[in-house]
Amino acid sequence: MKIAIVGYGTMGKALAAYAQEQGHTIVAIIDRHTEKSGVTHPTVSKEALAQSEVVIEFAGSEGLEERVSLYGELKIPAVVATTGWYDRLDVVPQIATSTGASILWSGNFAIGVQLFYRIVANAAKLFNPFDEYDVLINEWFHAKKADSPSGTAVTLGKILIDNLERKKSSETARLDRRRDDDEIHVTSSRGGYTAGEHTVIFDSPSDTITLKHASRSRQGYLAGSLQAAAWIVKDRPGFHSLEEMLDEVLKS
């Protein structure tokens, strides 16, 4: 594939190297910090994307709506690995649909994480009849991660709420009060070098069951984003989640 990378931070640089190792061609690297070695354009534009078959972005959330609109206008499919925009999750899909864009997004492109989501969903269904079990989420990322909580933690909270009738909301902020019984507290730690660790804890007065996913490196995210790019280039207009791609793979 001929790939344009939007955002040339840690993940963008790792993606460029990994994609080329896998035989793909990087035709554009777009980042506002043009002093970075390898950057070809400062902003997303028709000129910057002229040679691209697909866009993969690990960028800041500012300007995402405008970028999605341009992807639709130019009919260039895009994989959106950008995080920190989940308060606009109702707006961006509408833009993709109205402009004819082909977008595949996820808060985490590691296939192992996607399978972990399904394990957590099934576990929550099992625990649903047993009110004595409370549930909480903890995540830990390296010190340089720019947002908190991660998209993965937010998604885990939604999965638990969808499958545990006694839970109605998640709280990601510091608590200076007693947590409500129908809340899930999501805590985040930033420090060290880990590529990401997420723990879901089901706890009762008599025992504790812990489910954990730990990333050893960023390779899982990179491989998943390339698989997503190969899927979205096959004429799939609209706003898609990585779950849709995984459903298709698991059914085949």
Q: What is the residue-mean pLDDT, rounded to a whole number?
A: 94
Output the CATH class name of the largest domain: Alpha Beta
Number of domains: 2
Low-confidence stretches: none
Kindly state the number of beta strands: 11
CATH architecture of the largest domain: 3-Layer(aba) Sandwich
How would you characterize the overall build of this protein?
By secondary structure, this protein is α/β, with parallel strands linked by helices. It has 2 domains: 142 residues, NAD(P)-binding Rossmann-like Domain (Rossmann fold, 3-Layer(aba) Sandwich); 104 residues, Dihydrodipicolinate Reductase, domain 2 (2-Layer Sandwich), CATH 3.30.360. Helices cover 34% and strands 23% of the residues. It contains 7 helices and 11 strands. Strand 1, helix 1 and strand 2 form a beta-alpha-beta unit.
Properties at a glance:
252 residues, alpha/beta, Rossmann fold, Dihydrodipicolinate Reductase, domain 2, six-stranded parallel sheet, 23% strand, elongated
Task: Annotate the secondary structure layout.
Elements: E1 2-6, H1 10-21, E2 25-30, E3 54-57, H2 64-74, E4 78-80, H3 92-99, E5 102-105, H4 111-127, E6 134-141, H5 151-163, E7 169-171, E8 183-190, E9 197-203, E10 208-214, H6 219-232, E11 238-241, H7 242-251
In short:
The protein is built from 7 helices and 11 strands. With 252 residues, the chain is of the alpha/beta class.
